[in-house]
Amino acid sequence: MKHWFAPSALLALAACGSGQSTEESAAATGNVMLRDVSADVVAQQMAAARKFDPPQGGLWLQKIEVVSLDIKNATDEQRSAVEEQVGKVAREKRSCLTSEQLLASETGAMGGMANMCKFEKVEMAGGKLNSNFQCTTADGQSSGTMTGTSTANSQVFTTVTHSGMGDTDAVFDLTLRVTRRRLGDCES
Protein backbone atom coordinates (compact mmCIF):
# COMPACT_ATOMS: atom_id res chain seq x y z
CA MET A 1 0.00 0.00 0.00
CA LYS A 2 1.51 3.31 -1.05
CA HIS A 3 0.82 6.58 0.67
CA TRP A 4 2.00 10.05 -0.17
CA PHE A 5 4.06 11.73 2.54
CA ALA A 6 4.82 15.37 1.66
CA PRO A 7 8.34 14.90 0.31
CA SER A 8 8.20 18.53 -0.23
CA ALA A 9 9.18 19.00 3.37
CA LEU A 10 12.70 18.89 1.96
CA LEU A 11 12.04 22.09 0.09
CA ALA A 12 12.75 25.72 0.80
CA LEU A 13 9.69 27.54 -0.48
CA ALA A 14 9.39 31.38 -0.77
CA ALA A 15 6.85 34.46 -0.63
CA CYS A 16 5.48 37.88 0.41
CA GLY A 17 4.12 41.02 -1.17
CA SER A 18 0.84 41.75 -2.86
CA GLY A 19 -0.64 39.67 -5.64
CA GLN A 20 0.86 36.58 -7.18
CA SER A 21 4.60 36.42 -7.64
CA THR A 22 6.14 35.49 -10.97
CA GLU A 23 9.28 33.56 -11.76
CA GLU A 24 10.96 36.89 -12.56
CA SER A 25 9.89 38.57 -9.30
CA ALA A 26 10.92 35.48 -7.32
CA ALA A 27 14.41 35.59 -8.88
CA ALA A 28 14.73 39.33 -8.25
CA THR A 29 13.55 39.29 -4.61
CA GLY A 30 13.85 35.73 -3.30
CA ASN A 31 10.18 35.97 -2.31
CA VAL A 32 7.21 33.92 -3.50
CA MET A 33 3.50 34.49 -2.97
CA LEU A 34 1.13 32.11 -4.70
CA ARG A 35 -2.50 31.04 -4.36
CA ASP A 36 -4.23 28.02 -5.87
CA VAL A 37 -1.40 26.76 -8.06
CA SER A 38 0.06 23.39 -9.04
CA ALA A 39 3.22 21.95 -7.52
CA ASP A 40 4.93 22.58 -10.89
CA VAL A 41 4.38 26.34 -10.59
CA VAL A 42 5.62 26.27 -7.00
CA ALA A 43 8.74 24.32 -8.04
CA GLN A 44 9.55 26.79 -10.84
CA GLN A 45 9.24 29.81 -8.58
CA MET A 46 11.08 28.06 -5.76
CA ALA A 47 14.03 27.38 -8.05
CA ALA A 48 14.06 31.02 -9.14
CA ALA A 49 13.74 32.35 -5.57
CA ARG A 50 16.51 30.15 -4.14
CA LYS A 51 18.97 31.57 -6.68
CA PHE A 52 18.55 34.93 -4.92
CA ASP A 53 20.16 33.48 -1.74
CA PRO A 54 21.40 30.02 -2.77
CA PRO A 55 22.46 27.34 -0.32
CA GLN A 56 26.22 27.21 0.19
CA GLY A 57 27.95 24.09 -1.08
CA GLY A 58 29.88 21.90 1.35
CA LEU A 59 29.32 19.06 3.78
CA TRP A 60 25.65 18.97 4.77
CA LEU A 61 23.79 16.93 7.39
CA GLN A 62 20.15 16.13 6.64
CA LYS A 63 17.92 14.64 9.29
CA ILE A 64 14.31 13.58 8.69
CA GLU A 65 12.35 12.95 11.87
CA VAL A 66 8.89 11.51 12.38
CA VAL A 67 7.54 13.85 15.05
CA SER A 68 4.16 12.14 15.33
CA LEU A 69 1.98 9.54 13.65
CA ASP A 70 -1.65 9.00 14.60
CA ILE A 71 -3.64 6.31 12.74
CA LYS A 72 -7.41 6.09 13.20
CA ASN A 73 -10.08 3.63 12.06
CA ALA A 74 -7.51 1.43 10.29
CA THR A 75 -7.35 -2.32 9.97
CA ASP A 76 -4.26 -4.05 11.34
CA GLU A 77 -3.01 -4.45 7.74
CA GLN A 78 -3.48 -0.74 6.98
CA ARG A 79 -1.82 0.26 10.26
CA SER A 80 1.18 -2.01 9.59
CA ALA A 81 1.58 -0.70 6.04
CA VAL A 82 1.56 2.95 7.15
CA GLU A 83 3.92 2.30 10.08
CA GLU A 84 6.33 0.44 7.78
CA GLN A 85 6.35 3.20 5.18
CA VAL A 86 6.73 5.96 7.76
CA GLY A 87 9.60 4.03 9.33
CA LYS A 88 11.46 4.21 6.01
CA VAL A 89 11.15 8.02 5.92
CA ALA A 90 13.16 8.74 9.08
CA ARG A 91 16.89 8.94 8.43
CA GLU A 92 20.06 10.93 8.86
CA LYS A 93 22.56 11.48 6.07
CA ARG A 94 25.79 13.43 5.48
CA SER A 95 26.57 14.52 1.93
CA CYS A 96 29.15 16.67 0.19
CA LEU A 97 27.04 18.79 -2.17
CA THR A 98 27.55 21.75 -4.47
CA SER A 99 25.17 24.69 -4.41
CA GLU A 100 23.69 23.44 -7.69
CA GLN A 101 23.08 19.95 -6.26
CA LEU A 102 21.36 21.45 -3.22
CA LEU A 103 19.10 23.59 -5.42
CA ALA A 104 18.24 20.56 -7.58
CA SER A 105 17.36 18.43 -4.55
CA GLU A 106 15.08 21.12 -3.14
CA THR A 107 13.06 21.59 -6.32
CA GLY A 108 13.31 17.94 -7.37
CA ALA A 109 11.30 16.84 -4.37
CA MET A 110 8.33 18.68 -5.88
CA GLY A 111 8.34 16.28 -8.82
CA GLY A 112 6.53 13.67 -6.76
CA MET A 113 3.76 16.14 -6.06
CA ALA A 114 3.42 17.56 -9.58
CA ASN A 115 0.41 15.63 -10.83
CA MET A 116 -1.24 15.12 -7.46
CA CYS A 117 -1.13 18.35 -5.50
CA LYS A 118 -2.39 21.87 -5.53
CA PHE A 119 -1.01 24.54 -3.26
CA GLU A 120 -3.74 26.72 -1.78
CA LYS A 121 -1.11 29.10 -0.38
CA VAL A 122 2.66 29.48 -0.62
CA GLU A 123 4.28 32.41 1.14
CA MET A 124 7.96 32.86 1.81
CA ALA A 125 9.91 35.98 2.53
CA GLY A 126 13.04 36.56 4.51
CA GLY A 127 13.62 32.81 4.60
CA LYS A 128 10.32 32.03 6.40
CA LEU A 129 7.82 29.61 4.86
CA ASN A 130 4.08 29.17 5.30
CA SER A 131 2.08 26.98 2.89
CA ASN A 132 -1.05 24.83 2.60
CA PHE A 133 -1.66 22.05 0.08
CA GLN A 134 -4.26 19.50 -1.05
CA CYS A 135 -3.34 16.24 -2.82
CA THR A 136 -5.31 13.48 -4.52
CA THR A 137 -3.76 10.04 -5.02
CA ALA A 138 -5.08 6.57 -5.79
CA ASP A 139 -4.92 5.96 -2.03
CA GLY A 140 -7.06 8.93 -1.05
CA GLN A 141 -7.02 12.62 -0.22
CA SER A 142 -4.30 14.43 1.73
CA SER A 143 -4.11 17.94 3.04
CA GLY A 144 -1.43 19.65 5.00
CA THR A 145 0.82 22.52 5.87
CA MET A 146 4.52 23.20 5.48
CA THR A 147 6.25 25.78 7.63
CA GLY A 148 9.88 26.54 8.27
CA THR A 149 12.97 28.62 7.72
CA SER A 150 15.81 28.56 5.22
CA THR A 151 19.20 30.28 4.96
CA ALA A 152 22.30 29.65 2.88
CA ASN A 153 23.61 27.34 5.64
CA SER A 154 20.54 25.74 7.21
CA GLN A 155 16.93 24.72 6.70
CA VAL A 156 14.26 23.51 9.10
CA PHE A 157 10.84 22.53 7.77
CA THR A 158 7.87 20.89 9.39
CA THR A 159 5.17 19.20 7.33
CA VAL A 160 1.86 18.20 8.89
CA THR A 161 -0.42 16.01 6.76
CA HIS A 162 -3.88 14.53 7.22
CA SER A 163 -4.42 11.62 4.82
CA GLY A 164 -7.32 9.37 3.96
CA MET A 165 -6.71 5.72 3.17
CA GLY A 166 -8.63 4.81 0.03
CA ASP A 167 -12.37 4.37 0.26
CA THR A 168 -12.30 3.47 3.97
CA ASP A 169 -12.84 5.56 7.09
CA ALA A 170 -9.16 5.07 7.98
CA VAL A 171 -7.03 8.23 8.24
CA PHE A 172 -3.62 9.13 9.50
CA ASP A 173 -2.02 12.32 10.71
CA LEU A 174 1.72 12.61 10.19
CA THR A 175 4.15 15.31 11.27
CA LEU A 176 7.65 15.28 9.75
CA ARG A 177 10.55 17.60 10.49
CA VAL A 178 13.41 17.99 8.01
CA THR A 179 16.56 19.67 9.27
CA ARG A 180 19.49 20.42 6.97
CA ARG A 181 22.61 22.22 8.06
CA ARG A 182 25.98 22.90 6.56
CA LEU A 183 28.77 21.37 8.64
CA GLY A 184 31.68 22.93 6.75
CA ASP A 185 33.76 22.44 3.65
CA CYS A 186 34.09 19.07 1.98
CA GLU A 187 37.26 17.13 2.51
CA SER A 188 39.27 16.36 -0.63
Essential attributes:
alpha+beta, eight-stranded antiparallel sheet
Q: Secondary structure elements and their pairing?
A:
Layout (H helix, E strand, L loop, with lengths): L22 H7 L2 E7 H12 L7 E15 L3 H14 L1 E7 L1 H10 L8 E9 L2 E10 L2 E11 L3 E11 L6 E14 L4
Antiparallel strand pairs: 1-4, 2-3, 2-8, 4-5, 5-6, 6-7, 7-8
Structure description:
With 188 residues, the protein is of the alpha+beta class. Helices cover 23% and strands 45% of the residues. The chain contains four helices and eight strands, in the order αβαβαβαβββββ. It has helices at residues 23-29, 39-50, 76-89, 99-108; strands spanning 32-38, 58-72, 91-97, 117-125, 128-137, 140-150, 154-164, 171-184. An eight-stranded antiparallel beta sheet has the order 1-4-5-6-7-8-2-3. The model is unreliable at 1-18 (pLDDT under 50).
Q: Biggest sheet: strands side by side, in what order? A: 1-4-5-6-7-8-2-3
Strand coverage percent: 35-45%
Radius of gyration: 17 Å
The parts where pLDDT drops under 50 for at least 5 residues are 1-18
Oligomeric nature of the chains: single chain
Number of distinct helices: 4
What's the helix-strand series? HEHEHEHEEEEE
Give the tally of β-strands: 8
- Global structural class: alpha+beta
Helix content: 10-25%
Q: Which word captures the global form?
A: globular
Q: Biggest β-sheet, characterized? A: 8 strands, antiparallel
- N/C terminus separation: 43 Å
- Taking all residues together, what is the mean pLDDT? 84
